[in-house]
Amino acid sequence: xxxxxxxxxxxxxxxxxxxxxxxxxxxxxxxxxxxxxxxxxxxxxxxxxxxxxxxxxxxxxxxxxxxxxxxxxxxxxxxxxxxxxxxxxxxxxxxxxxxxxxxxxxxxxxxxxxxxxxxxxxxxxxxxxxxxxxxxxxxxxxxxxxxxxxxxxxxxxxxxxxxxxxxxxxxxx
Length: 173
Prior knowledge:
Elements: E1 7-8, H1 18-32, E2 41-42, E3 53-55, E4 60-62, E5 68-73, E6 81-93, E7 96-97, H2 98-101, E8 106-111, E9 115-119, E10 125-133, E11 139-142, E12 146-150
Parallel strand pairs: 1-2, 4-12
Antiparallel strand pairs: 3-5, 5-9, 6-7, 6-8, 6-10, 10-11, 10-12
């Protein structure tokens, strides 16, 4: 019997269990000889879910200075690592997100931790999202954006926080 070419595609977060059913079907087909093992594939995002965001909570107002924020999210089964994207509103152009203006959000693509500490620039709005990465460095689906805003009164006029260069640029400030 000539093997069929079998490709199994599953979407990102498969909460209804269809990915498991489809994967099981491929395994059964391979064992029965209906398709060759070397051609049975599962899509890159089929096994990873988007991490659940833990903190800061969506629409948090932060008042600390320096403007240090600790982002935290849930562990994803079978994830080898994580990526985080941090965006700033009004840092690159007045009234717009940096990612919308120049595609210049701040991205850390390869981490093994489920937390990331970042010093944010200025009293403005920000947002963040994360994704899991599998053992082959393939990203899973991204979480939804979660917003935050800094309203930190300057406590020390000699702070080095304002001297730190922004990855977002200085046009919108």
